[in-house]
Amino acid sequence: MNADEIQASMQQQLEAAGVPTNQARDAADVLARQNVGELPFPLPPEQQHIVSSAYEWFKAKQQ
Length: 63
What we know:
Layout: H1 3-16, H2 21-35, H3 45-62
Helix pairs in contact: 1-2, 2-3
């Protein structure tokens, strides 16, 4: 899978879990870029905040 395919798949899964579209898109982009080596582990604070915000939405929708 390339970064675009990973991003699309992650975004779809986040949206299906109730994460708003903009947040899902941004978080999926960060995670896909990290997955293909464009972003480091751990993420820089700005990118980590994007992913953490989406995760908080995800957790809230699961309750």
